[in-house]
Design goal:
209 residues; alpha/beta; 40% helix; Rossmann fold
Length: 209
């Protein structure tokens, strides 16, 4: 996440209430939060024993689903306090404090069967999203693997603008996904990409080579 716009300290401060906020929020941006994470699991179609990397793992809610599915899971986040809570929930998982944009962290395998993420990539502009995802797909995805990303997302620019108007002064200007923008950009980078909406402002992207 871009350090000057989204400092790790903001997420450290949010960590104690993150799970409560996502569980209770029935509107923008966390509508159907649990269903969104479950859709990531369903789309990833993991098998017992597969290796999974959760990028921007936060407090470990998505990580927990893949752990329960019998996968070998690693997680990264750049917030030390989010990771502290994740480690308490899931002591069997290796969590590494790292920024997605930086060089590959030591202690992580080079290749994974599945790379997943929940509510992290909306901190990056489209070009940065595509660059990061393409590098993950080319360098760190095992043959036949899948990248599955859940996030705040809209099907079109018109839908995003309508939500912006509804939110008014409550709207936070971030790099939310817009399927009609990001899908062509990902495909132009040589990736296969598909989008499934889960709520009016969230959805799941399936990406592979």
């Amino acid at each position: 996440m871009t350090a000057d716009l989204f400092p790790a300290s903001d997420f450290d401060d949010w960590a104690p209430t993150y799970d409560q906020d996502t569980a209770l929020n029935s509107g923008f941006p966390f509508e159907n939060y649990r269903q969104v994470l479950q859709t990531v699991l369903n789309t990833a179609q993991p098998r017992v024993g597969q290796t999974v990397l959760d990028l921007g793992a936060g407090t470990g809610n998505l990580t927990a689903l893949f752990t329960a599915a019998g996968c070998q899971v690693w997680g990264t986040d750049y917030s030390s306090q989010m990771l502290a809570l994740a480690r308490m929930k899931l002591p069997q998982v290796t969590f590494v404090q790292a920024d997605i944009r930086d060089s590959w962290p030591s202690g992580l395998p080079e290749k994974f069967d599945r790379i997943v993420s929940g509510y992290a990539f909306h901190h990056f502009a489209t070009a940065e999203k595509v660059r990061l995802i393409r590098d993950l797909a080319v360098t760190h995805l095992a043959p036949g693997g899948r990248i599955v990303i859940a996030d705040i997302a809209f099907a079109s620019l018109a839908e995003q603008e309508a939500e912006r108007q509804r939110q008014g002064s409550e709207w936070n200007e971030e790099f939310y996904w817009v399927a009609e923008v990001e899908l062509p950009a990902l495909r132009a980078a040589g990736l296969q990409a598909a989008f499934e909406a889960v709520s009016p402002y969230s959805g799941v992207f399936l990406i592979n080579l």
